[in-house]
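Lecture notes, unit on protein representations.

Consider one protein chain, 518 amino acids long.
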Amino acid sequence: MLAAGALTASSAFARPAAAEADIVLKGGTIHTGTAAPFVGDVAITDDRITFVGKAAPAGAKRVIDAEGLVVAPGFIDAHTHVGDMIAGNDAAERLVLPFLMQGVTTAFIGNDGGGDIDTAAVLGSAATRPVGINYATFVGFGAVRKAVVGEADRAPTAAELGEMKTIVGKAMCSGALGFSTGLFYAPQNFAKQDEVVALAKTSAAHGGIYDSHIRDESSYTVGLSGAIDEALTVGREAGMPVHIAHIKALGVDVHGQAPAIIAKINAARAAGQVVHADQYPWSASGTALSAALLPRWAEDGGREAMLKRFDEPETLARIRTEMRENLRRRGGAASLLLTRGPDDVVGKTLEEIAAQTGADPVDAAVAVMRRGPTGVASFNQTEPDIAAFMKQPWVMTSSDGSTGHPRLYGSYARKYDKYVKTDKVISLGDFIARSTALPAETFSLEGRGVLKTGAFADVVAFDPATFASRADYAQPTLFATGVRTVIVNGKVAVENGAPTGVAAGRGLPRTPKAGSCP
């Protein structure tokens, strides 16, 4: 659990206890996010917690029996891809039930350099388009670069760089958490380090955090270690904290490197640099088939340009050669499971598709990519590396939740069931702290991530005997089991294990550095 530096209640959000609470969760095992657990009560009035202790005052309007349940702050997911759900036209989808049903009450969006550059509109939309969870957003490098430079493999002009800085600055002043990058992906991969630093400095001037899907989590270009070095350099040169997105050692060439990466980050932290990370509890990553196998130069100019290269025999021959090496890095055709794309390939491995069509796996992959964008679950991590990263006190929980992968529906439930309850990699207290108070403190979500008087009433109560993921790679859209109650800003969103349909989420703008905005 958190030690020194744990988030504390401040006078900015503290409120006196009410004589009559709206809700009392009674008799549960209380994990506050920062302190040792105890059996007691949590009282809520309006959108705030008004009591946390052994016995709440009598007379609550509603009492929820939490005996035998773990009562904790609502989980905070530091890396997701649910921005489209939150911004969508479907009111039911905007509830984000895959998260609520496993106790996630706050999610970060705009990760991997994606999202919408209009941060003000994104954060303000909940006022007129109700959502089920709270959310905060980064300003994404990929979105900014596409808006100004497009998808070409070239450096920006001075004028274009200035325009990108303006977009980043405006987003920060509108409440962005910081500047996110996905340097593994085109067109962000085309940017050199100095371009990234220039834009990161703009975010840093407003108090932002540098969040990065690093340039290489494997051995594609600079290697895992080199990519970590680049992220640390960006943070030092920009003068801002560094957050490593979904930290991992991906692919056969880097398996076993987790201890060396941990040592590198610990050395930077010991030298005074602020560095932290998030991690999802699955051995398979999720990405586009093109991102997994194509060389980045083949994506220069976007999908239309990529398809033209497929039609040029000499160019395709070069692409196939590099794809074959990338497939080796990923562990071979049997390690890639198609999760999104044409119905007749979803749920099959690339090896199975190749066998059914009588094609070489690389040719089978090209044929699938010709048909449209396709997603894969890529089985490319080892359990010792996953466990080594998970044990670090600076690694928080995340889902990287995206369609077609079970991590959208089951990451928090799986982490508890597998890595706390079964494998005992971390304790229950560590799981809760790194899913609540640690991300709240790290990203300055004041009043979130803790159970204490005056904090916002985001609460989950789950059954420690049955909390588990039902979602798997074959059936990735099954809700988790074991969550009994979820409360978002004082409103009951899950009751007796079923969603209520209440949409009480809010956009959470981060306050920019004092004096940094007009």
